[in-house]
Amino acid sequence: MEGPRDGPPPGSGCLLVLCGKSRVEKDQARSLAAKGSLKLKHDGNEIAITLRAAEGEESSLASPEETFRTQMYMGALSTSRFGGFLLWSPCLPSTQDVVSQNFGELPIGAVCVADFQSRGRGRTKNVWESPAGCLMFSFTVEMEDGRVVPLLQYVISLAVSEATKEICRAKGLPPLDVKIKWPNDLYLNGLKIGGVLCTSTYKSKKFSVSAGVGLNLDNEKPTTSLNAVLRGITSVSHQLQREEILAYFFNNFDHLFEKFLNEGFQALEELYYRTWLHSGQKVVIKEERGDTAVTIQGLTPSGYLLAADDADNLYELHPDGNSLDFFQGLVRRKLG
């Protein structure tokens, strides 16, 4: 990921290829393409969108390197709730903008994938360029209980980690143990390889959540990538493919999300704590009256960090909203 670059200038356009797995989703793709009702704005300017329904199993452009292999993806996708309606583009400002600006037009569970993003979105309004070699996607989720919406990013992060391990097992490869750095970064071998972003709006007693994921698959810079690490631990030449990872992600997310809705996040906590980087981590809270050392115990019900000091006083830790690294700017609230 490199520095931010401007998106397509006004008057230029983006191609979106619409695909469906089921018959209903294929009909939806053809209908949306025919209506031409999807919109996209960048910095207040309307960007022209060319919509095209995929004619066959493979959607393609002139260059094979710019092709998302729909047949591979759909063949590996086993869930019917998420990912069966696909929007793919060779270049977009941001997949997150596509799904958030067109949430009402898209079926719930629809996913948008881009080969290249010129204005990828992160927390605190950070933007960056996401080159080819990354898996970049955003999808739609609908939820009713606003108290648990902030926890969705943890479920998504878990699904990425579980999907990566599962695809390695399925192919007889050494496992890649993707870890979670709270709240929404993905790490491998101590280096950041991706992240999660969720934004939401509230209407008609439901939360419309646009969930975005970026995962470095092939680029060894600026940190490392899944396939670079894989090459270092096995002599097998097989490389992980973004189409397969995306399908495995949705397969895992579907059952994790179902468990989350039915049983609460506590049903996933054991798995989450095995996956994150922070159990027993000591952090220092810097305050005007002095520094306080605390040890992270887990998460509070609202999704913030639970920590204890040497006297076993419990605190909920919040980011201060100013620091790039959450752990460099934590604010504590005493519990109990």
UniProtKB/TrEMBL annotation:
At the top level, the lineage of the source is Eukaryota
For this UniProt entry, the molecular function terms from Gene Ontology, in alphabetical order, are: biotin--[biotin carboxyl-carrier protein] ligase activity
Q: Please name the InterPro entries in this protein's record.
A: aa-tRNA-synth_II/BPL/LPL, Biotin_CoA_COase_ligase, BPL_LPL_catalytic
Under the heading Pfam families, the entry gives: BPL_LplA_LipB
Q: Mind telling me which GO cellular component terms the entry cites?
A: cytoplasm
**BPL/LPL catalytic domain ranges (all copies):** 71-261
Q: Is Ion transport set as a keyword in this record?
A: no
* Keyword entries, A-Z: Ligase
Give the matching PANTHER family. BIOTIN PROTEIN LIGASE (PTHR12835), BIOTIN--PROTEIN LIGASE (PTHR12835:SF5)
The Swiss-Prot or TrEMBL record describes its family as follows: Belongs to the biotin--protein ligase family.
UniProt name for this protein: BPL/LPL catalytic domain-containing protein
Species of the source? Spirodela intermedia
Q: What is the lineage of its organism?
A: Eukaryota, Viridiplantae, Streptophyta, Embryophyta, Tracheophyta
